[in-house]
Task: structure prediction
Amino acid sequence: MSEIQYITDLYLQEDEVLLKTRESMAQHGMPDITIPPQTAKILYLLVKMSGAQKILEVGTLAGYSGIWLARALPETGTLLTLEIKPQFAQVAAENFRLAGLQNKVQVQSGNALAVMEDLLQDNAKFDFFFFDADKLNLPKYLQLALKLAAPGAIITADNTLWKGRVYDPTSSRPTTKAVRLFNKMLAEDRRLESIIIPSGDGLSVARVKDNV
Ligand code: SAM
Result:
């Protein structure tokens, strides 16, 4: 038995809603690129432990990670999740409905960068962010998140070890450079305290300091 199998058997049994969400992806020909369950459980616990009330997710797909995030919210909490592909957003909205989370979750179809600019104009504030979309734009998502963040907000992102390419000096693809820059920004920005948890392909977790 592997380490991850042991952890999965003990802590990560998926219920019918999550299994049906996976099925919906296959039915609609969507790519199987959800976060791994162990990363989902870490995010769930982070939302609970931080007492987050307003989450912004970038990259909805079929709502798998969103269901974990929304389930961790208190009754009054909300999740806004952004998805560029309208057909994916539609599948996700149905999955949130089946999960009984439709009152907490808003799925918005559109380019996350544009939507976040609009949110900024509306003076919106969030206390939890999860980035899991186009890695090239990670540095821009971080800059926008810092403007949209309430004091003490948590900023998270998946795939930030980028299959080891971020620490492979021979890898200089644009996406690798973007993820590397994002990691450096998290490490060096004085407003943040950060780490990468080696869960799955790397889960970045940062906290915005209270007094900035
Ligand atoms: N977080 C999801 C989960 O674990 O269930 C998986 C998200 S999948 C890795 C990335 C998603 O981001 C895709 O559905 C893709 O269409 C979406 N996406 C890519 N670029 C985007 C953008 N600029 N704005 C919004 N969504 C985007």
Summary: Residues 174-188 form the longest helix (15 residues).
